[in-house]
Structure formats: structure tokens, C-alpha cells
Write a structure and sequence with these properties.
Elements lengths: L2 H5 L5 E7 L13 H15 L7 H6 L2 E12 L8 E11 L3 E10 L5 E13 L4 E2 L4 H14 L19
Antiparallel strand pairs: 1-3, 2-5, 3-4, 4-5, 5-6
Length: about 170
């Protein structure tokens, strides 16, 4: 990762050009829950290299990332043909894990449609087990984290699913 690329870190990363496809629509006439995951994944693919996980580096290291945990909130409907804009914010990382949040917005109307909180695991593909990221990658992630530190953390981050018991 060269320093000039590091100097131009977007905060947050933005992926657009994603539109709700006909096969993503369910019998309710809106985007099916499963395809929110697909759209978030497409958006993550668009910014993956800017996070430091460029294909050449990952292939050379025989490494990848796997999703360890994911939490989605659904805020408002998306319908056939709607375009979305997805922001990706690095919240934190350690030697083996990356914590991200994505926010999906209706591109034209600007409303928040969904959020997706990820815990990615750095995988050593020779063993197909969690491994430690190389120092160079951790230094790049530190620069991304610092660039994203001033962004507000969405209130959906850290939510848990629970029914509240009456007092």
C-alpha cells in the first residue's frame, strides 16, 4: 500500500450504481430480505481494495476474509429499479478481525433503507483458519480507522435482538 493512496482515504467509502433487480423483489412487492445482504456484499466488494484487501495482496498472502457475524436492520422499503448508495465505515480492527458498518440509502430520495454491521475474520487460506494480518495491512487499516474516526457511529451499531421484559 503506497503512501499516496493512503493520503486519499474517503470517509466514509461510498459505493453506488447498485439498483434493485427484478429477481430481488418478493411477493410483497419490495426487495426481499436476502437481497439486502447481496446488495451490501456488492457494495463491500466495490470498496474492498480501499480497505486494504486488494486481490493481488490477498492472493500473494494466500489469505481472505470470512464473515464471522453480521447484523442487519431494515429501516424502509426498496422497490424494483430503486438505486442505492452504500457507505462503508471502519469502526475498528485487531490482528485478526475487522469491524465495519454499512448504511444503505435510497440514492434519489436519500432515506436510510438498511444498515449492516459486519465482523470480518482474516483467514489464512493455507489452513482455512483465522490468522494474523500482516503489519503493512494493519498499518493501512489504522490509517482508514483514523480517517473514519470523525464520522458519527450509527445508532444501530451494537444492537442486540431481545424482547424487553415488563418492569
Amino acid at each position: 500500500m503506497n503512501e499516496s493512496a493512503a493520503a486519499a482515504i474517503d470517509a466514509p467509502f461510498v459505493a453506488d450504481g447498485i439498483a434493485v433487480r427484478p429477481e430481488w423483489i418478493d411477493f410483497n412487492g419490495h426487495m426481499n430480505v436476502a437481497f439486502y445482504v447481496r446488495a451490501f456484499d456488492i457494495a463491500l466488494d466495490k470498496v474492498y481494495a480501499r480497505l486494504g484487501f486488494d486481490p493481488a495482496r490477498m492472493t500473494a498472502a494466500n489469505a481472505s476474509t470470512f464473515t464471522g457475524e453480521m447484523h442487519i436492520t431494515y429501516q424502509r422499503e426498496l422497490k424494483l429499479g430503486d438505486s442505492v448508495r452504500v457507505t462503508t465505515q471502519l469502526l475498528g480492527f485487531d490482528a485478526k478481525r475487522i469491524h465495519l458498518v454499512q448504511c444503505m440509502y435510497h440514492a434519489r430520495d436519500g432515506y436510510l433503507a438498511a444498515t449492516d454491521e459486519w465482523l470480518l475474520l482474516y483467514i489464512d487460506m493455507t489452513r482455512r483458519r483465522v490468522g494474523e494480518m500482516p503489519d503493512e495491512l494493519r498499518r493501512h487499516l489504522a490509517r482508514v480507522r483514523d480517517a473514519h474516526a470523525a464520522l458519527p457511529v450509527p445508532p444501530e451499531v451494537g444492537r442486540a435482538i431481545a424482547l424487553r421484559r415488563p418492569a
